[in-house]
Every structure is written in C-alpha cells, then in structure tokens.
C-alpha cells in the first residue's frame, strides 16, 4: 500500500469553503465542482464540514450531503470530514456516517461545549475512534479552550485513538517536542500563516484554507517548503503571507470567500451569525489578492 492509502491525511487537504446560493442554501453542484477543481489544481484532497465549511450552521441533512457530495466528486480516500459536535456520541455518529460514505479518515476537535479536563478528552477520542475510521485530532485551543498539548497528544496516540494532529495553536516550538514524544504521530499544519515554520519542523501535511482561492501557488509553496527548496518557499511565503494570515483571524471564512470571489471562483455569502466584512477589511483583502493575481499566483 502507498503512503496515500495508509496515511490519507498527508499532503494538502483543503478545508473547503461551502458555496451558498442567494437564499443561503447549500449549492451542492457548485461544491462538487469546487472539490474537483481543487484536486485538478494540485491539491490532494478536501476536508468538508470544518469551521471554514460553516458546519456549525448546517442541518444534519445538509452536513451529511456535503460529505457525500465530496466523496462523489473526488473519491472517499482523500475526503477527511470534520466530525466535531457537542457530544461524543454525536461525533461518533458523524464518524460512522463518514466511514459509511467511503471516507478514509476524519478530523475531530476535543469536546467544545465546555472546558474539558484530560480524562474527558481521552474518553471523547476513545469513543469516536470506536467508529473504526482513523482520527486526526484538531488542536484549536483558541476556539475550544481545550489545549491538546504535546504530552496529551502523545497519550492519545499511544492509546491508539489518533493518528495525526492538525496543529492550530500557533506555537511552532511544539512540533519538536511532539516529534520526541510521539515520532509516529503525523503533524499537520493547521494555520496557513505558520506553514513554512511547521513544514521545516517536519509536518507531513497541511489542512489548508487559502488554496480555496489560490490552489496552484499555495500547493507550490507547500511542496517547496517540505521539499527543502527554501529559495522558492521563502519567496512564495512572503508574497502570500498578507493573505495567509487571514486564516488565523476571526473573519477567516469571510476573507477566504471574498478572495475566491475576486479570483473568479464562487465564494459568496456566509450564514449568520457571521456578518459581512467591514469596508477596510475588504479593501485590505482585495489589495492583497489582486497583488497576488498580478504576480501570477492565481
């Protein structure tokens, strides 16, 4: 078996933005086309139902169909749905739905209805791992208030509950400690604006935001970074960083969708409670996106 088959979370997996129509209904046809377009432009797969996909404001029926649409578009091996939910039982049901749809892995936040302690985190991941599909942990202590520190990740991996982690803490120093504590646990870049730092620290993949708008140049950046081509990587990183840093801002969904609109993709609106960007935010994103386009990065 290839690495892609045994570790399907490796490479560039795009946390997909979700196209909505004028009535804020999910446009599954456009979503299928977007998934295919990303793969055609060099991305390795997609992550539906992440925060960028606005999963929190989808109905259960919509959420299930989003997964099925992605699998039908590009095949299940490289579709890694987010299965976050308030309860462990619900997260397990979403993992089972992904498994039954043909997905080869899922991505799971820690409990996020309250600030869970270590025992709760371990129990949560154990329950969802019971669905029988490999779990990639998602460490986002900014939003969940639960920090999957290297020691805890090593314990989760040692118990067989997780196979990789999407790291969004912003603390790139953790990569080295994690490699010492759990060398077989794959580190995935979780925030666009620390891509180069985590790639140099040994990351095996990138759960990515800005490839939604600029797949070719961002994939080139990732490949150069993990391949040790620092000349290419550093130049691209400097050119793209004014956009990449929006992935770590509160308005990341609106920002990426707006960049998609500017380059001729369907970004569109977001569902409430997300509100439109402020004029000064739009101006900054437009300027950075148009500069990237002018530099041939679209």
Automatic annotation (TrEMBL):
Keywords: Lyase. InterPro entries: Aldolase_TIM, DapA-like. SUPFAM superfamilies: Aldolase. The keyword Lyase applies. This is Dihydrodipicolinate synthase family protein. It comes from the Bacteria. Belongs to the DapA family. The lineage of its organism: Bacteria, Bacillati, Actinomycetota, Actinomycetes, Kitasatosporales. It comes from Streptomyces osmaniensis. Pfam families: DHDPS (PF00701).
